[in-house]
């Protein structure tokens, strides 16, 4: 039943997408608006197909229908309801269903939003592009990643359940959907960019039309990445939250290019420039989401040679190549129209700062991409093995990060066109003193070392700048000073700065140690006292939990544990974290010695300011939300910048109207 | 005091910034050269084990991994630190024993040097490209508004009130 339903959904989605591509494509080429307008029905059918597939999979998981091979491989009667529900995105085939469902959702949203312009070739070609992407993902579910393979379970069969790590923390239910909403969301602006190239309407119309879509996708991606990092901190138990792991890098790469795009697009809106660059950034962002899926899903990471056996790997890398060739070909074809007459007058201007931002973000993305793929390249070319790990990424990204903080301090106060030193001197002095203040504060509370203290200084400087912009905007506009792209953007900046400071502090001042304790014994580490009180063994439906009770500075007891899952012999540790606003003490159990008077080995990781990573993430999400709401309306006929020869008036500059 | 410095003199204008720079250099030198407790043996062990890859797992360092092999290496590193070996000696010991790939920091020799050099090359190219476009832009003649342009703008501004700036119902256009 579930099998048939699921297969029907997948087939419906695929058929609707393929027919939609043909119909809309034919209609666009033959100038038949009636055919082009049919896209709304195809979109609805694609979404419906994805919905049926997802519904069938959830129904199979919830009823433990082991005739579906995916459920037999990943489900279990013992899995608690929440994790059972989340199992749909716990493994490859199911996660493609989620991808297809979200893609269908975005497709329908685009159709609804542009319902009055469906016959417009720009919208038509965008829907055409989206339908091709839909056809690809539904195609994956028919071919290499079929979630609805059948299985004949023997009597009394019970599946192994999802990977134990995936049923250890409720964040698992939220992190992948958020991430996918971000990944998939970039399909919309990408499709409009392709449509702009095909129709030759490469002006600013498509940019304005997709501005908010891009921002929303970016916001979801941001939240997804931060939840993922939080999940790994709460679950993996090694005391860290970001390991520059290929999976993390795969999500970070489109975030970097997407962030670069959100900034450089402003230059095009204002000045009509950087058209090729913006289209390239957007296409790179979308291509990187596919490349990231390939990196993480094809098995290429274990070994280059394992990858040829995975047909999904070949499909994804083929699709990636198609995107790259199509984009490069289209940009080459439209080269003449993409040239813009404008020029940037001075590097010391808002647009100059955005260009610098783009070079830095591109360099950042390049370092991450190189570091992630380098081991694969070396293995493929040289048959040699090399590891590129945390020390490399930390060392290479640190100077880029510091420069970005510096830029975040300068850029918001720069006017368009051209700034004078007079103006900068005047506007930046207070932010500079805030930066100095934060350095002094850091040194007083005991921070040492050139790099971290410099980072705190630059962070204060940048926060001062963002704060200045918000203060000016609210003084002029009241509560509206928080809303709109420029003002919301400053709130996002504050979130980024909070995260950057927490990252700098926690990586610079992390202390880690292992202790073997017998009951009643205590240990002192990094200013904290730990007392081991004893153990507590709990029997749960899917696992046996062996908790180790520890008091930290008299609070608690905190209970890191080892979990033995009923299915499989894996033992998974669950860390326990005491968070305060100043520092986190994370405990994880390394070893429990059987029969040996209850002695245990625990790992203690003390890191400052960890909680601010999550707070900063919340501030970023809130800022994105503020930026999505329309700010003060600007009449398109109003002048956007002062004439070159005249000094910009003090009152209206600084904050983008 | 400040009245002694003439209004508009460079010192008057740049004074606050000179103060900022002086204080920044002072604070940063305290931060860099100020007394700092030397890293304990425990800290050195955790720093080194974060740069050595777990030999049996994928992509985890010895510090992160809970595999018995990693626990063994952590113990070994602790012994080596106790014996007074330097960080470099300990790392090259593991590189010799397990191969270069055991180190999470790629070496800067042979093909592996590329992973260090390429980003710098790419960044230099990016900066050079920026310099070139700014050169080209600055050599371009500035656009001058003609009488015709001005009339066009004036006409548009007169019609301003009647203009529907939102023909597609997409909300605010900014």
Helix-strand blueprint:
The complex is a heterodimer of chains A (657) and B (174).
Chain A: H1 2-29, H2 33-36, H3 39-62, H4 69-74, H5 81-86, H6 92-113, H7 121-142, H8 175-185, H9 187-199, H10 205-235, H11 246-271, H12 275-297, H13 311-333, H14 335-338, H15 350-382, H16 390-410, H17 421-444, H18 450-477, H19 485-508, E1 511-517, E2 522-525, E3 528-539, E4 543-552, E5 555-558, E6 561-565, E7 571-574, E8 576-579, E9 583-592, E10 600-608, H20 611-628
Antiparallel strand pairs in A: 1-10, 2-3, 3-4, 4-5, 4-6, 6-7, 8-9, 9-10
Helix pairs in contact in A: 1-3, 1-7, 3-6, 3-7, 6-7, 6-8, 7-9, 8-10, 9-10, 9-12, 10-11, 10-20, 11-12, 11-15, 12-13, 15-16, 16-18, 17-18, 18-19, 19-20
Chain B: H1 10-33, H2 41-50, H3 68-82, H4 87-98, H5 113-139, H6 147-158
Helix pairs in contact in B: 2-3
Domain Cytochrome c-type biogenesis protein CcmF C-terminal (chain A): 319-628
Subcellular location (chain A): Cell inner membrane
Domain Cytochrome c assembly protein (chain A): 89-298
Quick summary of this structure?
The complex is a heterodimer of chains A (657) and B (174). With 657 residues, chain A is of the alpha+beta class.
Key features?
heterodimer; A: 657 residues; 6-stranded antiparallel β-sheet; 4-stranded antiparallel β-sheet; 20 helices; B: mainly alpha; Helicase, Ruva Protein, domain 3; 6 helices; 0% strand; disordered C terminus
Task: Please give a structural write-up.
The complex is a heterodimer of chains A (657) and B (174). Chain A has 657 residues and is an alpha+beta fold. Among the domains of chain A are: 1-162, no CATH class; 411-509 and 610-628, no CATH class; 512-608, no CATH class. Helices cover 60% and strands 11% of the residues of chain A. Chain A is built from 20 helices and 10 strands. Chain A has helices spanning 2-29, 33-36, 39-62, 69-74, 81-86, 92-113, 121-142, 175-185, 187-199, 205-235, 246-271, 275-297, 311-333, 335-338, 350-382, 390-410, 421-444, 450-477, 485-508, 611-628, and strands at residues 511-517, 522-525, 528-539, 543-552, 555-558, 561-565, 571-574, 576-579, 583-592, 600-608. In chain A, the strands form 2 sheets. In chain A, strands 2, 3, 4, 5, 6 and 7 form a 6-stranded antiparallel beta sheet that branches. A 4-stranded antiparallel beta sheet of chain A has the order 1-10-9-8, covered by helices on one side. Chain A is globular and about 80 Å long. The model of chain A is unreliable at 646-657 (pLDDT under 50). Chain B is mainly α. Among the domains of chain B are: 41-102, Helicase, Ruva Protein, domain 3, CATH 1.10.8; 107-140. Chain B has helices at residues 10-33, 41-50, 68-82, 87-98, 113-139, 147-158. In chain B, helix 2 packs across helix 3 (68-82). Chain B is elongated and about 80 Å long. Chain B starts with 9 loop residues before the first helix and ends in a 16-residue tail after the last helix. At the A-B interface, helix 10, helix 15, helix 16, helix 17 and helix 18 of A face helix 1, helix 2 and helix 5 of B.
């Amino acid at each position: 039943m579930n099998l048939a339903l699921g297969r029907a959904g997948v087939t419906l989605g695929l058929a609707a997408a393929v027919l939609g591509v043909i119909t809309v494509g034919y209609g666009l080429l033959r100038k038949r608006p009636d055919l082009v307008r049919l896209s709304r029905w195809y979109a609805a059918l694609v979404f419906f197909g994805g919905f049926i597939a997802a519904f069938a999979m959830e129904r199979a998981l919830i009823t433990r229908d082991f005739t579906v091979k995916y459920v037999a491989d990943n489900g279990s009667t013992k899995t608690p309801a929440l994790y059972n529900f989340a199992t749909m995105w716990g493994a490859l085939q199911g996660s493609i269903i989620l991808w297809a469902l979200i893609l269908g959702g975005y497709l329908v949203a685009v159709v609804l939003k542009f319902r009055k312009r469906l016959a417009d070739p720009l919208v038509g070609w965008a829907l055409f592009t989206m339908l091709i992407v839909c056809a690809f993902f539904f195609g994956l579910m028919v071919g290499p990643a079929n979630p609805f393979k059948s299985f004949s379970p023997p009597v009394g069969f019970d599946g192994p359940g999802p990977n134990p790590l995936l049923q250890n923390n409720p964040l698992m239910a939220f992190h992948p959907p958020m991430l996918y909403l971000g990944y998939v969301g970039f399909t919309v602006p990408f499709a409009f960019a392709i449509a702009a190239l095909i129709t030759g309407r490469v002006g600013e119309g498509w940019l304005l039309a997709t501005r908010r879509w891009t921002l929303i996708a970016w916001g979801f991606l941001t939240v997804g990445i931060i939840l993922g990092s939080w999940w790994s901190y709460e679950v993996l138990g090694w005391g860290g939250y970001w390991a520059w792991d290929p999976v993390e890098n795969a999500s970070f790469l489109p975030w970097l290019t997407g962030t670069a795009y959100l900034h450089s697009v402003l230059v095009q809106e204002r000045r009509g420039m950087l058209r090729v660059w913006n289209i390239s950034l957007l296409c790179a962002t979308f291509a990187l989401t596919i490349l990231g899926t390939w990196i993480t899903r094809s098995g290429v990471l274990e070994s280059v040679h394992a990858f040829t056996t995975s047909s999904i790997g070949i499909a994804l890398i083929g699709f990636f190549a198609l995107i790259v060739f199509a984009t490069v070909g289209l940009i080459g074809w439209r080269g003449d129209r993409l040239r813009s007459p404008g020029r940037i007058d001075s590097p010391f201007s808002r647009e100059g700062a955005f260009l610098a931002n783009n070079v830095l973000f591109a360099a950042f993305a390049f370092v991450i991409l190189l570091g992630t793929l380098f081991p694969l390249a070396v293995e493929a070319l040289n048959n040699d093995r090399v590891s590129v790990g945390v020390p490399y990424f930390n060392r290479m990204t640190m100077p880029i990060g510091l420069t970005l903080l510096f830029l975040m301090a300068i850029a918001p106060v720069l006017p368009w066109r051209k700034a004078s030193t007079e103006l900068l001197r005047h506007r930046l002095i207070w932010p500079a003193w805030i930066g100095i203040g934060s350095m002094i504060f850091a040194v007083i509370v005991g921070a040492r070392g050139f790099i971290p203290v410099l980072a705190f200084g630059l962070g204060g400087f940048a926060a001062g700048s963002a704060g200045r912009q918000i203060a000016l905007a609210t003084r002029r506009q009241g509560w509206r000073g928080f809303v709109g792209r420029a003002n919301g953007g400053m709130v996002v900046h504050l979130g980024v700065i909070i995260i950057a400071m927490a990252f700098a502090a926690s990586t610079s001042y992390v202390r880690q140690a292992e202790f073997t304790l017998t009951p009643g014994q205590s240990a002192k580490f990094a200013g904290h006292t730990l007392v081991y009180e004893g153990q507590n063994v709990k029997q749960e439906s899917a696992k046996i939990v062996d908790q180790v009770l520890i008091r930290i500075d008299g609070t608690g007891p905190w209970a890191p544990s080892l979990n033995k899952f009923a299915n499989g012999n894996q033992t998974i540790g669950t860390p326990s974290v005491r968070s305060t606003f100043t520092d986190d003490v994370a405990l994880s159990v390394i070893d429990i010695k059987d029969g040996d008077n209850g002695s245990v080995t625990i790992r203690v990781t003390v890191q400052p300011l960890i909680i601010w990573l999550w707070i900063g993430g919340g501030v970023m999400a809130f800022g994105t939300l503020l930026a999505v709401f329309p700010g003060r309306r600007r009449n398109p006929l109003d002048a956007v910048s002062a004439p070159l020869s005249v000094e910009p008036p003090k009152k209206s500059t600084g904050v983008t109207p | 005091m400040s009245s002694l410095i003439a209004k508009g003199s460079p010192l008057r204008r740049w004074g606050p910034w000179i103060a900022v720079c002086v204080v920044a250099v002072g604070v940063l030198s305290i931060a860099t050269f100020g007394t700092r407790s030397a890293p304990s043996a425990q800290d050195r062990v955790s720093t080194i084990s974060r740069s050595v890859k777990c030999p049996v797992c994928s992509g985890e360092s010895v510090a992160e991994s809970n595999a018995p092999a990693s626990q063994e290496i952590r113990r070994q590193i602790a012994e080596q630190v106790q014996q007074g070996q330097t960080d470099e000696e300990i790392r090259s010991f593991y590189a010799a024993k397990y191969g270069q790939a055991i180190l999470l920091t790629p070496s800067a020799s042979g093909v592996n040097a590329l992973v260090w050099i390429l980003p710098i090359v790419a960044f230099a190219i990016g900066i050079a490209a920026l310099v070139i476009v700014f050169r080209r832009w600055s050599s371009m003649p500035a656009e001058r508004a003609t009488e015709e342009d001005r009339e066009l703008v004036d006409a548009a501004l007169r019609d301003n009130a009647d203009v529907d700036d939102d023909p597609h119902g997409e909300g605010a256009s900014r």
